[in-house]
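Next up, a specimen:

>
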Amino acid sequence: MTHNDVIMNHGSSVIQHGHFNNRVYVMKLAREDIPDIIRLADDLARKEGYSKIFVKVPESAQEPFSHAGYVSEATVPLFYQDEPAVFMAKYLDPERKNVRDATIIANTLSEAFVHAGRRAPHVLPEGFSLMHAHAGDATEIARLYQTVFKTYPFPITDDEFIRKSLQDHTRYYVVKKSHILAAVASCEVDSSNRIIEVTDFATSPLFRGRGFASHLLHAMETDMKKEGIRLAFTICRAVSGPINTVFAGAGYEFGGQLPNNTNICGSIESMNVWYKRL
């Protein structure tokens, strides 16, 4: 899996950009970097020929982005302690706004809503164990991601990336049968805002259909709530029925949709935003 996007700092903000996702993504926005970061992102996108700029913005700070041509695509209430985050985008190529598979995506979302609040029981099938991952699991986790994802927006198929993530602010949870890795997921912890992004869900083709994603999600929520985390959110594939159903079933609320946002499973796909107060 080729991955050539880079992560850089600008002031106190963090930006990912590259031709792999064909975008500029302001992953962490510091208020003091506004409006300079708007000019930087625009210059970077035009110089490199990227077709989208994507940013999470505090609601009270969205006006300069709107004036610069950004549109609101999703909202997560109380993301920044006492105010929402608005997920905003600017399209330098109008074609990127056009959602492919729109009917499939709409049907997937409708089916997910049918399962709202109907989380499966939290008892693992016999012979399986759920636990925290550690550095020694990195190679096996990366190998599972290679099996499941043809492409992914971050280099999770690199075991060194997994190890580094474990040292930073990411927790990985795994389901194993004996010593065989069956499923994995992670949560990226933002301690300052007391939120987590739950992400990187993958189940081995040998072990699908057992509800492991729901088990992993419940375990992460339970642990993080004990640590004072107050909100969980995710950005997941809009065309994937199973993962959207997992979040709807767990009581997550739909925050919006990000058209053609992310290189995942072999192409640029639209993503859904879900959130839940813990």
Remarks:
- The helical segments are 36-48, 63-67, 102-114, 138-148, 159-167, 212-226, 241-249.
- The chain has a mean pLDDT of 95.
